Give the backbone structure.
Amino acid sequence: MNPVKVAILGGSGYTAVELIRILLRHPYARIEAIASRQEGTPRIGELHPSLLQRIDLRCEPFDPDALRARGVECAFGCLPHGMSSSVTVPLLERGIRVIDLSADYRLRDAAVYLDYYGEPNRDPGRLSQAVYGLPEIYGDELADARLIANPGCYPQTGILGLAPLVAAKRIDLGSIIIDSKSGVSGAGRTPKLSTHFPECNESFSAYSVGKHRHTPEIEQVLSDIAGEAVRVIFTPHLVPMDRGIFSTIYVAPTEPIGESELMALYRDYYRDRPFIRLRETLPATKDTVGTNFVDIALRVVRGRIIVLVCEDNLIRGASGVAVQNFNRVYGFPETTALL
């Protein structure tokens, strides 16, 4: 089998380097090009020294015609929101499939995008065409997808932590509280005051309370699962660690339920889902570092259900699930290069 030639757009960030590492061990993928606006077309090992002697490609300017001429079939977009759609459009027009890791195609409603991102979506006509790339929920739709909207890091913990309960209508859909904490790498590689070491070290803080951009993404998918509108209270926090997300979710059951029944419900829902690990013990962020797993534990406390969810924000939260989507699209075993 000839490997699928892929391109990575935006080679300087954390998600790109993780994606490169995964694809280098993928038996059915070949990294043909890495596009970046870096001056002087540096070798990727100069930007990410951990890749020295592992890949010899240089960063190159984005040229969709050149990518098509070189046989690129699939492009992974590792660009910021707003910028990503500007390169996605010419790729799709040239028959190149796109797995977009930005937020540009996650929300179906352009008005909601404008409200939460503060700028118009640059490709509103394709919002309804994109498949949301959460394989455990939309896996059957991925095989024919030309445009895949990779999910956000926070939303995966909230959605996957709640999906079995929402699907079975076992909770009050107006009672959902998602309390999430993320490592500093979730803010990206570009320096910012809030992630400057003296600012975030030895500190713990909430941010974007009541208005975080991932809120409508969580609500959109949970509403799909429920078949009716779902609203959540989502509060993110910054933790002074490199990577990882820990979400604690609080919900009210519609009728009393025990922990053993809860676990049975989740085991049934996530049967044959290789990256969901249901835990009897309480999870921790270090348990998922460097993996594509989502760890879930369940507790009942004073009549409320508490769902505890962990993931690596750079692997499962971005690059790992992107490759999981790639595997689904091309019919490769879902776990290829991820275990």
Remarks:
- The chain has a mean pLDDT of 94.
- Residues 153-312 form a domain with the Dihydrodipicolinate Reductase; domain 2 fold (CATH 3.30.360.10).
- Residues 284 and 310 are 7 Å apart (CA to CA).
